[in-house]
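Crash report, auto-generated. Payload:
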Amino acid sequence: MKLIILDDYDKASEWAAKYIRNRIIQFNPGPERFFTLGLPTGGTPLGCYKKLIEYFKNGEISFKYIKTFNMDEYVGIPRDHPESYHSFMWNNFFKHIDIRAENAHILDGNAADLQVECDAFEEKIRAAGGIQLFVGGIGPDGHIAFNEPGSSLSSRTRVKTLALDTILANARFFDGDLSKVPTMALTVGVGTVMDAREVMILITGAHKAFALYKAIEEGINHMWTVSAFQQHPQTLFVCDEDATLELRVKTVKYFKGMMHVHNELVKPLTPVQKGNAKVVEMSEKPYSD
Amino acid sequence: MPSNKSVSEEPITQFVNCRILKDHQLQREDLWVREGKILNPEKLFFDEEGYADHQVDCESKILAPGFIDVQINGGYGVDFSQGCDVRGGVALVSKRLLEHGVTSFCPTLVTSPPHIYHKVLPEMEVHDGGAEGAGVLGVHLEGPFISREKRGAHPEHCLRSFQQGSLTDLLEVYGSLDNVSIVTLAPELPGSPTVIQELVKMGVTVSLGHSVADLSQAEQAVQQGATFITHLFNAMLPFHHRDPGIVGLLTSDQLPPNCTVFYGMIADGIHTNPAALRIAHRAHPSGLVLVTDAITAMGLPPGHHTLGQQHIQIDGLHAYVAGTNTLCGSIATMDMCVRHFRKASGCSVEAALEAASLHPAQLLGISQHKGTLDYGSDADFVLLDDSLHVKATYIGGEEVWRK
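Recovered output after restart:
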């Protein structure tokens, strides 16, 4: 595991975006070779999306040969509802970049048979060769995607009933009217994310500090589903100072002492590195713990 | 690969790098067009898995709905009320209006003898705009059912009253109302309530003007369905605090619920004092419709011109009867009016642009497809720089003029 600690939200967002940028460039995607990216929604990744859009507009990266898979979507609200994750992805990311619609996959919460939709999503991920880099965020209760506390750590994509806490927290997006808040969602499972070659979790803000502590300093526990990634061979937690408030000083000092090494990962790539990228195979690991 | 076969094979154009006027705000958004209509790109993306075939870089300009002029008597030497070579005259003006950002208009006929209406009206067909010029939304008939006292420059011998108090009077004079979208009349004329009702039933917008009506007569006309005031302040009783007259409609509480009264404003800095413009705008901003009320001389260079029997001296934005100080009409173009209105009223760029696009479209009941950049609307729009000078004009998504 790598724990990347940045001063604030903006710096954390930028670091994460640069990491994604470099991974894409190193992978050197093309018509026969798509890079696969798992994507989250919510407030935390917004800054990261803004930076990625900036890199696209600068011409540093293109999304033409990238397939994306979103983590989750509500059940039963119209696709064009402003709070749907389709709308979120369109407004905050897709409409600003050159991704092709056929490569942008989001679960359909209005599908006639929801489980069939979930199974098809898993199949699409498999058909795309698995996910290279899964980017995620977590809730204050340590849930990743909609894998609420108590979700199986080997779960796959499925229908989930939302925890009351989540429903209450979401009410502000639905005119404060609890009856309008979706109570179910489709979500990738913890196991689905675990299968990705690399996982990057963004955690910012003091309200997520306890969840970060539970994620990395205590044992693996299905009540803090994000803790499952302790067993993933390639996981990065990217956080701001506020999110480290519940960590031990020792933990924070250790990882801060590593920042000069980790910052190498987000440096602009030289032409030689870009050239070498062509020979990096999907199974290879250019960086390891 | 042809895009979006499921819905349409027509190419899609994406206008990028622009600030579009949408939902009353300038927003950094792209504008997508297919088959001459504004497309919802989110639906295109998720439903059709489609994408744009071409991109047009708008160089960070403002992209606003095309201007709509509901009162224009002519220009470039053409007088619509002359009755000679009607089609040629309309075609010339249509074409030249493009450079002022006008994408559709209502050619306006001042009070004329019946034979002029009978000849001119059938030749002024409603039609869409295009490369050949701005679209014609229907004729605005200003008179002859107007007040003798407030006739302004309208010829006195042609004025009429409602003899039978019904449409028959209008058909007798006009011949047909097929190509007509607005009729300006004086509501104090006996018989006008029935006439207003019948016009509104036919889908014709009724405007109050060239009138000595008091406020209660004006309110009654609005209750019958009138929705517009022709060049507010001009050719009507001046505002008086015990009888505000037609001007009082701007703040009347005797109007039907959800009824917006619109009012035309000649914002050329000459025909309406900026203070009066501000009074009207602050009292009723959502009803303000910019009109040019332009005459034959609009678009002609400064100097002396002979137009028919008239001799005109053009000096800046003033057009005088030659050798006198008598103003003979407005020669400001729509883009000038937008700029002047913004400066004089201190309103936002958005409000200035909507007074020339959204409001006239709402007035004519066509805001479903004109006057906005909403999805499904006609892709009639202008590109403007920050000082609101027109840089390019598009109709149905096609560029029809560029500076």
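Post-recovery validation: Chain A touches chain B at residues 79-80, 86-87, 90, 94-95, 100-102, 104 (CB under 8 Å).
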